[in-house]
Amino acid sequence: MSDNFQFINLPRLDPEKTESRVRIHTWNEIYGQFDSADAGNQAGRCLECGNPYCEWKCPVHNYIPNWLKLVREGNLFEAAELSHKTNSLPEICGRVCPQDRLCEGSCTLNDGFGAVTIGSVEKFITDEAYKKGWRPDLSNVVQTGKKVAIIGAGPAGLACADVLVRNGVKPIVYDRYPEIGGLLTFGIPSFKLEKEVVRVRRQIMEGMGVKFILNTEIGRDIGFQQLLNDYDAVFLGMGTYNYMEGGFSGENLTGVYKALPYLVGNISQVENWETKADIREGLGMQDGYINLKGKHVVVLGGGDTAMDCNRTAIRQGAASVTCAYRRDEANMPGSKREVANAKEEGVQFLWNRQPVSIVGECQAEGVKVVTTELGQPDARGRRSPQVVQGSEEIIPADVVLIAFGFRPSPAEWFKDFNITVESNGRVKASATQEFAFQTTHEKVFAGGDMVRGSDLVVTAVYEGRQAAQGILDYLQV
Ligand code: FAD
Ligand code: SF4
Questions:
Q1: Could you give the CA distance from residue 43 to residue 116 in angstroms, rounded to a whole number?
Q2: Regions in the chain scoring below 70 on pLDDT
Q3: Which ligand is nearest to the CA of 83?
Q4: Which part of the chain is the FAD/NAD(P)-binding domain (predicted)?
């Protein structure tokens, strides 16, 4: 029987986390898994408060209290089915979502009791159900005979494929990389998301009837016109891949690297992947694997990518890792959990420091920074940093990693097909079009980072799913 006051006697418990002194020597995920008893007990802490703010704050509006209840009752397969009604990658979102500012951040139990461990239960459901033989139930699907090409096997493309195949439309997903996942595979390090999790998701999706055509770049290996000819509609989920520069001197010195090529080089080394020359070129990975063992490293930026650089450098055995960010800790964009993990692993943070140049003759020797204070909030409520006069200092460094984020990277060929790009480079498509996430080409839909700018896995999933609904409406199936 349910006990709505279980949260009083049973404190919040997170799955066991590997101690920092141990985990910095491995590339494994740092969080363990609940066993069935702990998952049930933690799920049972849900108050069923009647107004589930967690659902509203979750970008895909997961039926959180409902699947928590199923876990508490031990109905794992039902929980897995329900969880997939709103989320195409629940085990991945359970691992990488910044729950502290999404679902868990809005849990009623934050008032002194500790939020329900929603993310960990979400990952438990699919991981454990899959191990016990659960596979998505597509027994009622009626085939429509329609087929849709999807460009990009990242979260947006995968989510779009998931909804289409469940509605009897055949998705064929093209990606230039040799494995699915987009930034899940070629970006996020394995200590946050082991690559085996993405491989399992591929097996699930292939089992559902999704076809992947990998190592194939649209616009180079296959022309876009051919997709328009061969398919009933096309979805673009191509991400954002232009690196933001600091715009200050010294960025071209030896020892200065961009975040994503550094991270992908390391993942390739850890996973023992041969990264093809054209992928290396596309990602700006001319330097290949960059080993920072023994180096004094400065990471510039305050988002998830910066945290991943910090923690990768620590695991490579850097002599020191210092992360400089121009706002204070409360105003940084990265997940609070990841900042805490980085601190535990030995990363030093310098808040309110804005880089003005990278110093050195040929080789980077340090980063010149100024101290900042936060001014009044702007129209969007963000407080912009103001420079404190006379506050220049140099942080010594052998290596500088630049993690300022990404700008949109619209393909040259979009203009040949009337696919409109906004002045900021994002593809024009939104929930408010006649058909959700339709572009200015009636047969072409788009979503994820290339439409909203670089953001989160879960928001890319949301847009991929919404776009799939737009495609179904457009195809009238
Ligand atoms: P992507 O994941 O970028 O996928 C796009 C895919 O399209 C790629 O596979 C690419 O190869 C393919 N493609 C592009 N052009 C073509 C073409 N012409 N032909 C064929 N294929 C093509 N989010 C979180 O929620 N939590 C995190 O902890 C987190 N950490 C991150 C860490 C890093 C280092 C980075 C870079 C991002 C992180 N993010 C995180 C953000 C998240 O990964 C992205 O928001 C999300 O992956 C976007 O999904 P997408 O499908 O739009 O694009
Ligand atoms: Fe929370 Fe993300 Fe899962 Fe939504 S998808 S319930 S925000 S972990």
A1: 7
A2: 1-4
A3: 2
A4: 146-464
Which atom, in ligand 2's list, is nearest to the CA of 94? 8
CA dist., res. 225 & res. 257, Å (int): 37
Q: Give the separation between CA 123 and CA 33, rounded to whole angstroms.
A: 8
Read off the pLDDT of residues 96-121 as tens digits, 9 standing for 90 and up: 999 999 999 999 999 789 999 999 99
Q: Domain 6-132: give its CATH code.
A: 1.10.1060.10
Instruction: List the chain domain ranges.
Output: 6-132, 147-240+408-475, 245-402
By DSSP bridging, strand 366-377 and strand 393-396 are antiparallel
Q: What is the pLDDT of residue 2?
A: 55
Pocket test for ligand 2, best of 42, 122, 126 (most atoms within 8 A of CB): 122
Q: List Cβ neighbours of 456 (8 Å cut-off, separation of 6 or more).
A: 59, 97, 98
Residue 269 CA to residue 476 CA, distance in Å, equals 47
**Distance from residue 403's CA to the centre of ligand 1 (Å):** 15
Of 352, 341, 262, the C-alpha closest to 309 is 262
Q: Ligand 1: does its nearest atom lie under 6 Å from the Cβ of 455?
A: yes
CA of 304 to the centre of ligand 2 (A): 17
pLDDT value of position 111 = 79
Q: Using CA atoms, how far apart are residues 50 and 468, in angstroms rounded to an integer?
A: 30
Please tell me the chain's helix, strand, coil percentages from 3-state DSSP, rounded to the nearest 5. 35, 15, 45
ipTM: 0.99
pTM of the model: 0.96
- What does the alpha-carbon distance between residue 179 and residue 467 come to, in Å, rounded to a whole number? 23
Q: Calculate helix-pair angle for 36-43, 64-72, nearest 10 degrees.
A: 130
Ligand lying nearest the CA atom of residue 96: 1
CA of 359 to the centre of ligand 2 (A): 42
User: Ligand 1 pocket: which of 183, 336, 452, 459 to mutate (most atoms <8 Å of CB)?
Assistant: 183
Architecture of domain 245-402: 3-Layer(bba) Sandwich (3.50)
In angstroms and rounded to an integer, the radius of gyration of the C-alpha atoms of the chain is 23
Q: Sign of torsion, CA 172 176 180 181?
A: negative
Assess whether the C-beta atom of 174 lies below 6 angstroms from ligand 1: yes
Site to probe by mutation for ligand 2, drawn from 53, 62, 335, 462 as the one with most ligand atoms within 8 Å of Cβ, is: 62
Whether domain 147-240+408-475 has CATH 3.10.180.10: no
Strand partners, 283: none
Which ligand does the CA of 57 lie closest to? 2
Q: Whose Cα sits closest to atom 5 in ligand 2?
A: 93
Domains 6-132 and 245-402 share a fold: no
Cα–Cα distances (Å) from 429 to 182, 242, 298, 370, in that order, read 20, 20, 38, 40
Q: Which residues pair with 297 in a beta bridge?
A: 321, 399
Q: Residue 424, Cα to own-chain centre: how many angstroms?
A: 21
